[in-house]
Amino acid sequence: MTIPPRVLTVAGSDSGGGAGIQADLKTMLALGVHGMSVVTAVTAQNSLGVQGAWELPVEAVRAQFRSVVDDIGVQAVKTGMLSSAGLVTAVAELLAPLDVPVVVDPVGVSKHGDPLLAADAVEVVRTRLLPLATVATPNLDEVRQITGVVVDGEPAMREAAAAVLKCGPRWVLIKGGHLSGDAVDLLTDGSSEHWLRAPRHDNRHTHGTGCTLASAVASFLARGLDVPEAAHAAKEYVTGAIEAGFPLGGGIGPVDHAWRQR
């Protein structure tokens, strides 16, 4: 009996199913790994935005993590929405002893611009969480939030990557989806560069893109790919999911995590 690789997501719940824990688990299923979850927060969320968010107690997060890791084990971890300094600190303490790849998606704002990270938690992300990351996957808003660097074009992505790398991750994947032109991301460890390019699809239904990309990287790392290989494979997967994104409700619909199965 073949047991698939096991990947744990530590993130918030999106009641609309397009991002957060729901997007992570859909991505993991689509990419052939067994997804498990530690829920850090519950949101009331739909295609129009986030109407409410409730953080879970640190004790509940610790208990979920220990329950999964101590019995089932993990081969990669992905972190997402960690809304407070206390949660970031607790998750960093849980991750520190693990000897598996960790993908940190430093979620700061939602697709609709709703804040998802408390101001006093940003410094803890810098000093406690990012140093544990095998790969950090900030978008341009999160780069500015973490480092103060404003990216207005591809040349500035190198400066952004260098600033994030100073926080301690082994690799950083700067997501340039908010720029004009092709969808361009930069993966670097400070010595080698990998520019990931894809055509920009004319589709506004892109909810969950960041969560999906980070979960895809974690899934491919759990399957044994190295970081550049995992990033390239994840980019291909998320590009197809964006192209197949579909409308839901009255706002921005989700990417299609099952595009390869349809």
From TrEMBL:
<comment type="function">
    <text>Catalyzes the phosphorylation of hydroxymethylpyrimidine phosphate (HMP-P) to HMP-PP, and of HMP to HMP-P.</text>
</comment>
<dbReference type="InterPro" id="IPR004399">
    <property type="entry name" value="HMP/HMP-P_kinase_dom"/>
</dbReference>
<keyword id="KW-0067">ATP-binding</keyword>
<dbReference type="GO" id="GO:0009229">
    <property type="term" value="P:thiamine diphosphate biosynthetic process"/>
</dbReference>
<dbReference type="GO" id="GO:0009228">
    <property type="term" value="P:thiamine biosynthetic process"/>
</dbReference>
<dbReference type="GO" id="GO:0008902">
    <property type="term" value="F:hydroxymethylpyrimidine kinase activity"/>
</dbReference>
<keyword id="KW-0808">Transferase</keyword>
<protein>
    <submittedName>
        <fullName>Hydroxymethylpyrimidine/phosphomethylpyrimidine kinase</fullName>
    </submittedName>
</protein>
<dbReference type="InterPro" id="IPR013749">
    <property type="entry name" value="PM/HMP-P_kinase-1"/>
</dbReference>
<keyword id="KW-0784">Thiamine biosynthesis</keyword>
<keyword id="KW-0547">Nucleotide-binding</keyword>
<feature type="domain" description="Pyridoxamine kinase/Phosphomethylpyrimidine kinase">
    <location>
        <begin position="14"/>
        <end position="256"/>
    </location>
</feature>
<dbReference type="GO" id="GO:0005829">
    <property type="term" value="C:cytosol"/>
</dbReference>
<dbReference type="Pfam" id="PF08543">
    <property type="entry name" value="Phos_pyr_kin"/>
</dbReference>
<comment type="pathway">
    <text>Cofactor biosynthesis; thiamine diphosphate biosynthesis; 4-amino-2-methyl-5-diphosphomethylpyrimidine from 5-amino-1-(5-phospho-D-ribosyl)imidazole: step 3/3.</text>
</comment>
<keyword id="KW-0418">Kinase</keyword>
<dbReference type="GO" id="GO:0008972">
    <property type="term" value="F:phosphomethylpyrimidine kinase activity"/>
</dbReference>
<dbReference type="InterPro" id="IPR029056">
    <property type="entry name" value="Ribokinase-like"/>
</dbReference>
<dbReference type="GO" id="GO:0005524">
    <property type="term" value="F:ATP binding"/>
</dbReference>
